[in-house]
Design goal:
Elements (H helix, E strand, L loop, with lengths): L6 H4 L5 H7 L3 H6 L28 H9 L4 E3 L6 E3 L3 H9 L11 H11 L10 H6 L5 E4 L11 H19 L4 E4 L1 E2 L3 H14 L4 H4 L1 H15 L2 H8 L10 E2 L3 H16 L3 E11 L4 E3 L4 E17 L5 E6 L10 E4 L13 E3 L7 E6 L11 E4 L5 H10 L25 H14 L3 E14 L7 E10 L2 H12 L4 E3 L3 H10 L4 E2 L1 E2 L9 E4 L7 E3 L3 H10 L8 E3 L3 E2 L1 H5 L2 H4 L13 H5 L4 E5 L3 H16 L6 E5 L2 E2 L16 H8 L1 H9 L8 E2 L2 H25 L5 H7 L7 H4 L4 H22 L3 H28 L7 H22 L4 H8 L34 H23 L8 E7 L3 H7 L1 H8 L1 E10 L3 H4 L6 E7 L2 E6 H4 L2 H26 L2 H6 L2 H31 L1
Parallel strand pairs: 3-4, 5-6, 11-13, 17-25, 24-25, 26-27, 28-29
Antiparallel strand pairs: 1-2, 7-8, 7-16, 9-10, 9-12, 9-15, 11-14, 12-13, 16-18, 19-23, 20-21, 20-22, 28-31, 30-31
Helix pairs in contact: 8-24, 16-17, 16-22, 23-24, 24-25, 25-29, 25-30, 28-29, 28-30, 28-32, 29-30, 30-31, 37-39
């Protein structure tokens, strides 16, 4: 350590060895039962340690050694336990001071590392579990929607981090043990697809390398690519408990998935059957509805003849997929269609089938206006046709192999790719005279979200979970209030989907995922199977069923839908089923969760399934609130798309503007469930807001607190709300700003509790910018500086209020803009935290309103009186602007006011002089209706009526040179008159009005109106000038 370190630093280093042991992380300290406490405090000159006080280092090595030893210990007088003091981040931050402008890239990463290393994200970081319990503060649990393990950050992630982190930080500061549980999803299709692409580049397939080798490669890919997404989430400030990070394929989660499937089977909810699914031919698997995206694409509508059996008559039919003709089992018409009534019940011949015939049936489902009004029915390859086929008991013919080629049921087209078969079949039909025409046709094409291939509906043997019963329970959970959806309008969508739910196809023909815990008995066939927790359990059951001990058991090849494991997320991640009966487990403490925040686009696919599975398997709804955010869109409201080139990259945005600016832009100005148009101008404006905050704090630390002694600095530390005794002694501006701040605290607290995060965030912005920065800081200058008439007592009061309001505002803003608020807060006076607190961090400080039942001090009369003062100041400022009074010129004013407003204005006359730029020697406050007031009537002045009982007279002589102003106005009037005449002439010209585009004519009319309005205002000003002269 450098020899230049003075005694106050040496005193803090009584035990170097203990310091080195504890400097790693706060969780490590807890492991040794060390009470964690950081002695920052504002009571010592250490808090105001600045560049001038920095130790002189003889080398960079000495400097680095000093910084490395930044976490040291001291002896707490009340305890023999060692106490942690300032962190490396704290020392560096305070030593730098608040200099220059707001540059987030200089501190965001450092702050996050400090938070995480100190254990600030743990549920009991703020206070002990026992303290929370004794105060009745229940845990606030946020299950983080798990992003794909190999994914990369996009705006969908950024919005959920921004919103969820507001909730986590808010409730943590309010004293609730917060568990924001992070993790990643194995993303079955997306991850397997990437590995298969790599194999294709080698000229191999997964079947060629085998399942074991393929899975080895997937795990290697996961290790190489995984982790990036969680690092990127950290860059946004996510205060999640990373010590509990989970992965859907980790051992405990795999056990949870297996247990869930087995319990569903034991309840009679699992079965194997044939059903229509979305099939991805390239991946050779069924995919969920969520993984299918529909796009409007140019296609063709093919018209052809279905020849009536033993007749020259034909039934005209239209289709967009001719290749499926080979799987037709009926042609359907509307029973009310006079054109085809006579054909119902007859047989028609399937083209190119070798003479196979199918019936003509009738059903009102058929739209007589579309195509020909006759619909080919292919139950094996269309979901609507499948339903009709069930209704009429039609046979199902599958003509397609798993890879999208046609099979033997397609006759001569066996082995051809589906699209090659389409062309060949149509050509053959044309040669046979069966083609009528082909029309262009825009159609909705289903494509795989992951691979982009066209999805093929086909009937396949799959594993299903019965959904009706579970859906009914989830529906009732919302109806009876166990689950509250925000915004409420999504209740109707919830009901509609759950009331019309289909059984859930949970099997996927993939290799990467949770292999279905089913074992088939025997060397072949699938008629007999056993559902079990593992192979040993399956063998035991097989023996109990009468099979020999060496019976062959084959595990199901398919894996479970990724949404199956994701549906268990809120309870599997906290110890279900292993600890479901342990009263001291995480499961007992953190389940059910509190709030599930996610996008409305996965309300059915994930949220509803979590509710269904949670209630069915645990008996409790997995969360009490579902908060739905909208989609982040481009500035014009369109969907972000790489094709359009309008994608906003969150990492690039953070690098340029800082995480706080992006977070604040995403959260504020929007309401739950509404899409969020994002433009860079908004983000840039919010960076300016952060810079404004930076400058406000710089003013307080570098001006208001300059030269303040230790005793006063200690007294300035904010430890709870201001007392009534102190509040009652304050002058009007101080009472006003505190009252407005307390009103803000109440409103923000209430709105965040009610999940109105956007509205709450905007109010903080407005208060800091419009009230604190623009009004109170300016008024405080009349208290702080003797040159503005300030006294020592006034300066002391101003310092108290400046720090109190800034500290309170930083706490309110922290959930929205955590980095800049943390950085600045460390420069303010601070009290010692409790010994159980992980660190003396703003994120662990008390919220300004810890107790909802405790009213914050608000003086409504003071607010009203000061708003009158503000209105008076604005009125004078407006006149200065209107009359173009020079910036530095001070003007005269006569103020008429009734009591008690007269006394109020007189007491704050120096503030009025400063803010309105008045001449202090030429400002008088007069009792309204007095003789002196009546004498002002004849004076050449501009009269301002501020409100009932308050008027102001501004002598014209002090504002302008009347003759000079008259000439200026006359010159403006002349120019406007010429412009108006030209525009009127243009608009009366038939050539212009009749030939010019309508929009151009309208624009000219609007310009004329604006010029006329300007001319009228100048005339009014000239008339007033003439009258006063």
């Amino acid at each position: 350590m450098p020899s230049q370190l003075d005694s106050k630093y040496i005193k803090r280093r009584k035990s170097t060895m203990v310091a080195m042991a504890l400097m790693t992380t706060a969780p490590a300290a807890r492991a040794f039962n060390v009470p964690i406490r950081r002695l920052v405090s504002s009571t010592s000159s250490f808090v105001r340690y600045n560049k001038a006080q920095r130790p002189a280092f003889s080398s960079s090595l000495e400097k680095n050694s000093f910084l490395a030893m930044s976490t040291v210990t001291s002896t707490d007088k009340s305890s023999s336990a060692p106490v942690l003091i300032d962190s490396k981040y704290d020392i560096e931050n305070k030593s730098m001071g608040i200099v220059g402008k707001y540059e987030p890239q200089l501190f965001e990463e450092k702050i996050y590392k400090w938070w995480e290393d100190a254990g600030c994200f743990l549920p009991d970081a703020k206070q002990s579990k026992e303290e929370s319990s004794s105060q009745g503060r229940e845990p606030y649990v946020l299950p983080m929607p798990p992003p794909n393990v190999t994914g990369r950050l996009h705006m969908g992630h950024a919005i959920f981090v921004a919103l969820q982190d507001v909730l986590a930080r808010f409730h943590r500061m309010r004293g609730r043990p917060v568990l924001w549980l992070p993790g990643t999803d194995h993303a079955g299709i997306a991850t397997q697809l990437q590995v298969e692409k790599a194999l294709m580049a080698e000229g191999k397939t997964r079947e060629e390398v085998g399942r074991e080798e393929f899975l080895k490669r997937v795990w290697e890919y996961k290790e190489e690519q995984g982790g990036a997404i969680t690092s990127q989430l950290r860059s946004l400030g996510a205060s999640a408990d990373w010590s509990r990070e989970r992965f859907t394929m980790d051992e405990d989660n795999c056990e949870s998935v297996t247990e869930a499937f087995v319990r569903f089977h034991e309840k009679g909810l699992v079965y194997r059957g044939e059903y229509m699914v979305n099939w991805a031919p390239r991946l050779k698997t069924a995919v969920s509805d969520l993984e299918v995206e529909y796009s409007e694409e140019e296609g063709k509508l093919y018209f052809f003849k279905y020849m009536v059996q033993d007749s020259d008559e034909f039934l005209p039919v239209a289709t967009t997929r001719p290749e499926t003709i080979m799987g037709d089992t009926a042609v359907c018409v509307n029973p009310n269609d006079e054109r085809y009534k006579h054909l119902v019940g007859k047989k028609v011949v399937v083209p190119m089938s070798g003479g196979r015939t199918i019936p003509v049936i009738a059903d009102e489902y058929v739209d007589m206006e579309f195509g020909t009004g006759a619909l080919k029915i292919t139950p094996g390859h269309d979901p609507n046709d499948y339903a009709i086929g069930k209704k009429f008991d039609l046979p199902i013919i599958n003509i397609m192999n798993k890879d999208g080629s046609l099979n033997q049921n397609a006759g001569d087209y066996n082995g051809l790719d589906r699209f090659v078969a389409r062309e060949k079949l149509w050509k053959d039909m044309e040669e046979k005279g069966l083609v009528i025409k082909v029309d262009p046709h825009v159609q909705r094409v289903p494509r795989s979200q992951r691979g982009g291939e066209i999805i093929e509906p086909l009937v396949s043997s799959q594993w299903f979970v019965k959904a009706d019963g579970m859906a009914n329970k989830a529906l009732k959970a919302v109806e009876n209030g166990d689950i509250k959806i925000v915004p409420e309008r999504f209740n109707k969508i919830w009901y509609n989907w759950l009331e019309d739910i289909r059984d859930w196809c949970v099997s996927r023909q993939l290799w990467w995922g949770h292999r279905i815990p089913v074992w088939y008995v025997g060397e072949s066939g699938d008629s007999e199977y056993i559902v079990a927790r593992n192979e040993a359990d399956a063998r035991k059951k097989a023996i109990e069923n009468g099979h020999p001990e060496d019976v062959v058991l084959r595990q199901e090849e398919d894996v479970l839908d990724t949404w199956f494991s994701s549906g268990l997320w809120p309870f599997a991640t906290v110890g279900w089923p292993k600890n479901e009966h342990d009263p001291d487990s995480d499961f007992a403490r953190f389940y059910p969760g509190t709030c599930l925040e996610t996008g409305y686009d996965i309300l059915f696919f994930w949220v509803a399934r979590m509710a269904m599975m949670g209630i069915e398997l645990t008996g409790k709804a997995p969360f009490s609130v579902v908060y739905l955010h909208g989609l982040v869109r481009a500035a014009d409201g369109s969907k972000m798309s790489k094709t359009k080139g309008n994608v906003v990259d969150p990492l690039e945005t953070v690098a340029e503007y800082g995480a706080d600016s992006l977070r604040y832009s995403l959260v504020t100005g929007v309401t739950p469930g509404q899409d969020i148009p994002l433009n860079m101008e908004k983000i840039a404006a919010n960076k300016q807001f952060a810079n404004k905050l930076w400058n406000c704090c710089k003013f307080v630390t570098d001006n208001a607190l300059k030269g303040v002694d230790d005793d006063e600095m200690k007294a300035l530390s904010v430890d709870g709300t201001i007392t009534k005794e102190e509040f009652d002694t304050l002058p009007l501006p101080e009472k006003y700003i505190i009252s407005k701040c307390h009103l803000l605290v109440s409103e923000v607290t209430k709105e965040i509790e009610n999940y109105q995060l956007g509205a709450a965030g905007m109010k903080i912005y407005e208060f800091l910018w419009d009230q604190y920065a623009d009004w109170y800081i300016e008024i405080s200058k009349t208290r702080l500086y003797e040159g503005n008439g300030g006294t020592q007592e006034e300066a002391k009061i101003a310092r108290r209020v400046l720090v109190y309001i800034l500290d309170t505002s930083l706490r309110l803003l922290h959930p929205y803009m955590p980095f800049v608020t943390e950085q600045l807060w460390h420069h303010l006076p601070r009290v010692e935290p409790s010994k159980y607190r992980a660190s003396n961090a703003l994120m662990l400080a008390d919220w300004p309103q810890m107790d909802d039942n405790k009213e914050l001090l608000i003086d409504i009369k003071a607010v009203s009186a000061f708003e009158c003062f503000q209105a008076l100041t604005r009125s004078i400022r407006n006149v200065r602007a209107e009359y173009n009074v020079e910036q530095g010129k001070k003007i005269s004013a006569r103020i008429l006011a009734k009591q008690p407003l007269k006394d109020m204005i007189e007491k704050e006359i120096k503030s009025l002089v400063l803010l309105a730029k008045l001449d202090p020697e030429q400002v008088v406050v007069i009792e309204a209706d007095s003789d002196e007031a009546n004498q002002l009537v004849g004076v050449e002045s501009i009269k301002l009526v501020v409100q009932d009982g308050v008027e102001a007279y501004l002598p014209l002589a002090g504002l302008i040179d009347p003759e000079k102003e008259r000439k200026r106005l006359e010159k403006q009037a002349s120019k406007l008159s010429n412009d108006i005449d030209k525009l009127r002439a243009r608009l009366t010209s038939k050539g212009f009005v009749e030939k010019a585009p309508e929009a151009l004519v309208e624009k000219a009319k609007m310009e004329l109106k604006e010029l006329e309005d300007q001319a009228e205002k100048i005339k009014t000003s000239l008339d007033a000038l003439q009258k006063n002269n």
